[in-house]
Amino acid sequence: MNNDIEKILYTQEQVSNRISELATTISTKYQDEFPVVVPVMTGAMIFASELMQKLDFKLNIDYVDVSSYEDNSQSSGRVRLLRDLSHDVNGRSVLIVEDIIDSGHTLQFLNNLFASRGAKSIETCSLLDKPARREVDVDADYVGFKVPNEFIVGYGLDYDGRYRNMPYVGVLKRSVYEN
Questions:
Q1: What is the pTM of this model?
Q2: Does the keyword Glycosyltransferase feature in the UniProt annotation (predicted)?
Q3: Which residues are catalytic?
């Protein structure tokens, strides 16, 4: 698995340190609220788990599962909701937790969905941001790292269901996904 990685962008220690910084900032913001924290599965599960353990405020945890990929490497631009929330977000603050913001279609879809359901506020925390690939005008409120326009895997991000369990963020070799 590690042989498929061109280079490591962020080590496990760097990622963990940045998550601690994000958690401190977010905890200050939500100290007097009771938000619904919504990881976007499956990619955000590792990041969200570590982040939520470090958040110091009362919260509900729920999750959504969405898909915008028709093949294994390119977003289709069409987002499908595969698993919806079990919590009512009407009048509640929502914090979406994402692994990466790429084209922006998923985040735009979720922002519109939660706004239509009456969320009091909607913010996003993303481990990674790839602005070079943005197709719609969305930004995260809290970002771990900006990444280059490369195929990124590890720490929850995958290619064809593989590499999520790598404890770092790396660039996948082109030869792996262009075959």
A1: 0.94
A2: yes
A3: 102
